[in-house]
Amino acid sequence: MHTHSALSDEETAQLDAHWRALNYLSACQLYLRGNPLLREPLRAEHVKPRLLGHWGSAPGLGLVYTHLNRVVRRHGQEAMCVWGPGHGAPAVLAGAWLEGTFGEYDPDRARDAEGMLRLFRDFSHPGGLPSHTAPDVPGSIQEGGELGYALAHAYGAAFDNPGLLVCAVIGDGEAETAPLAASWHSNKFLDPVHDGAVLPVLHLNGYKIANPTVLARLPEDELDSLLRGYGHDPIHVTAHPGTPPAETHRALAAAFDTAVERVGLHQREARARAGSGGEQHRPRWPVLVLRTPKGWTGPRYVGGKPVEDTWRSHQVPLTGVAEDPHRLRQLEEWLRSYRPEELFDGQGRPAADVLACVPEGDRRLGAVAHADGGRLVRDLPLPPLERHAVALKTPGSTSHEPTRVLGGLLTELFEATAERRDFRMVGPDETASNHLDGVFAATPRGWQAQTLDTDEDLGPHGRVLEVLSEHMCQGWLEGYVLTGRHGLFASYEAFAHIVASMAGQHVKWLQSAREVPWRRPLASLNYLLTSHAWRQDHNGFSHQDPGFIDHILNKSPQVVRVYLPPDANTLLCVADHVLRTRDTVNVVVAGKQQCFDWLDLEEARGHCARGLGVWEWAGTEAGGREPDVVLACAGDVPTQETLAAASLLREHLPQLAVRVVNVVDIARLMPRSEHPHGLSDAEFDAVFTRDRPVVFAYHGYPWLVHRLSYRRAVHGSLHVRGYKEMGATTTPFDMVVRNDMDRYRLVMDVIDRTPGLGVEATGLRQKMADVRTRHHAWIREHGIDLPEVAEWKWPGACG
C-alpha cells in the first residue's frame, strides 16, 4: 500500500514558492548588501564589493530542503540532513532563516527585511558567516569545506536513534572521494531494529569546479548496477534546464514518499521479527538519485558563454556586476525572476504559501536537537576504577597488558549502557588484536551481512563496529558524538594518520562551535592508539609511526589533548577522565603488550591529575639536594628504558643525584599561555630545574618535545631521545637500540652531559657501548633479546 498521492496544484505551488524563496535568498547572499527586497531598481552600491560563495549546488540543495520539510510535516517523521556539498551553504542558511530558526538563535537575523539584509551582509564576510556549512549553520553537523564524509556522518547519526531518518545529500564531486566510496558499505552495519535509517540522496548536477563528474556521466543502467551492488534500491528523479518546476516537484515528492514508505516497511518488518525471535535480514534500503542542472534557475549565458548546467556556475556565475551596467541589469533580472514580491510582504516576512511546507518547533531541519547533540548528551555511567585496577606491592612487582585491563572497564561500560545505547567503539578490525576483545562478553560486533558457522562475536545488534576503513570508523564516530552520544576509536597507532585530515576538520568544528553561543558542549572524540611503534617489531617498518601526536598537537590548544599513560592503572585513570570530557579531541597512546605496573590506583590517580611528576622512589635524590641530572620519560616503553637506566646509574654511580620524571599529559610541557594544560615557568622549573642536564626518553619524534618546551630556561640543557624513523622487523629491544633510546644509550647521555662525569665514568660509558655492540650480534644469532634485557626487573621488585 502506497502512502503517497499526487500533489494537488495548491501543494505544488506552495512547494515551488518555498523553493523559489530559497533560491532568491541563496543568490542574494552572494551579491547583495542593500535593497534586499528589490523595492527599488538595483544599483551598484547595493552590491557587495567582494563576491564570494558558491551558487552551483545551491538550487539542488534548496530543492532537497523544501521536500524534506514536506516529508517531516506530512509523515510526522523526525528527520535531519547531512549536507555533503558543503559549499552549497547559501541554501542551507536560507532554509534556516526561512523557517525562523536563525532568528530564534540571533534576533538580528529575524524573519523580516532587516534580518534578511543581515543574512545577506554576513555571508562570506569577516566576522559573519562562512561560505560553507559550519557550526554557525543551524541543522548542520559537519564542516563543509572538505568532501567525503557525509554518508559516514549520516550513519553515525542514525546508530542507536531508532526513530530518526537521516538524509545524506551526496554531491557527485564528493562521490568521487575514497571515504565516500567506502561509506556505501555502511548499510551492512545499520541495525533496523535499534538504529534509525539513512536515506542517501545522490545529487548529480554534472560538474565539479571545472570538470565533469564521474557518476553523472555514467549511463543510468551502469549507475543502477553500482548502487544495487552496494545494496541499495535506486529511485530516480531527473530535471533538465527546461523541465517545468511543477513536474520536478511532483516527481520528487512521489520519490520521497516511496523512499519513506520503504524505510518504514523495512523497520516494521525487522522489529516484528526481533520481537518474535525471528532471523534478521539485511534490508535493501532506498537511495534517491536526483539529477538537476548545476546552477539551475541562474543565468543561462554570461558574456556569450553558457553558465547554467555547466561548470561555470560552480561559484559566482555573474562577476563584475558593480562595474558593468549590463551585468548589473542581468543580475537584477535574475533575482527578479524569482518574483520576490510574491514571496515576502512589505516588511520582508515570508508569505503563507512559502511556509506552508515548513514543520513546526524542533521538527524544523535547522532546529532538530540531533544536529546540536549537546542538547541530548548524558554523562556515561562509568564504573568504579577499583573494580578493574591492578594491585601491586612495590613498583614493577607485577605486569599486565594495559589495554586488556582497560577492556574490563569498557566491558562494564557496555553493560551499563545496554538499555540507553549511547556508547560505541569503532576500529579497523583490530579489537581482538588490540587485546580489547573482552568487550565481546557484553556486546558483539555489529554486523548485518551474511554470517557463517565459523564466525565469532558477530551480531545484528552489536555496538562494536569494525571495518577495514579508518575513514568509515572516523566518520561513524564523528556522526555519533555530534548527535549526542559517546565513543572510542581504537586503532593501530601508525594508521591513525589515515584519518589525520578528518581529525583536523573535527578539531576545527569543535573550535568554531565553542564560539557559537547556542551550540552546547559535546562528548569528546576519543582515540586509543595502541599496537604502537615500539612494539610493532614483528610487523615492521610500515607499522612504526608515532606521528599522529604531532599532527594533533599542531591543532587548537583549546581542543586537543594527548596522554601517554605508562602502565595499566594510569591508563584506567586516563580513560576515565577522557570519557567524561566535553568538546575535546583526546589521543591516548598505550601499549597492549605485557608491561610493568609502576603505580597503584591511588598513586596513578594523583599522577594523572598532575599530568607529570617526580617519581621519588625511582631516583637517588636525598636531603633536599638539587639533582645532578634529570631523567624524564613519556610513554610506556620510554618509561621502562628510563627506569632501567636509572637502575644502572644507581648501581654504577651511586654518588650521582638522579631525578626521574614521568609525563602523562604531554601538553604540560607547554607554557600555560599556549595551552590550558601547560605549566607556568615556576612549576616547570620546580620539576625539571632551570639548568641541570635533562635526558628525555619520549614515545614519539624527539623534536616535538623540543618544540613544546623551547621557551623553558632548561631547554639548552635538554636532550631528547625518541623515534627517528629507524624501523624494521626485529626484536622489541632492538627497536629502542636502533633509535638510540635504549637504557645503555641513556646512561651514556647522562655521562656525556653531566659536568664532571666525563673522566670519572669513562669505563662505565665504554661498558654501555659494549653491551650495545653485543646486542647486535646476539639478536642476529638467537633472534631474541639479550637475557639481561628480557629478564630485567626493577631492583627491589617483589612478586
From TrEMBL:
This is Probable phosphoketolase. Its EC number is 4.1.2.-. PROSITE patterns: PHOSPHOKETOLASE_1 (PS60002), PHOSPHOKETOLASE_2 (PS60003). Residues 592-794 form the Xylulose 5-phosphate/Fructose 6-phosphate phosphoketolase C-terminal domain. Its cofactor is thiamine diphosphate. Pfam families: XFP, XFP_C, XFP_N. The keyword Lyase applies. It comes from the Bacteria. Belongs to the XFP family. Keywords: Lyase, Thiamine pyrophosphate. Residues 7-375 form the Xylulose 5-phosphate/Fructose 6-phosphate phosphoketolase N-terminal domain. It comes from Streptomyces ovatisporus. The keyword Lyase applies. It is an enzyme of class 4 (lyase).
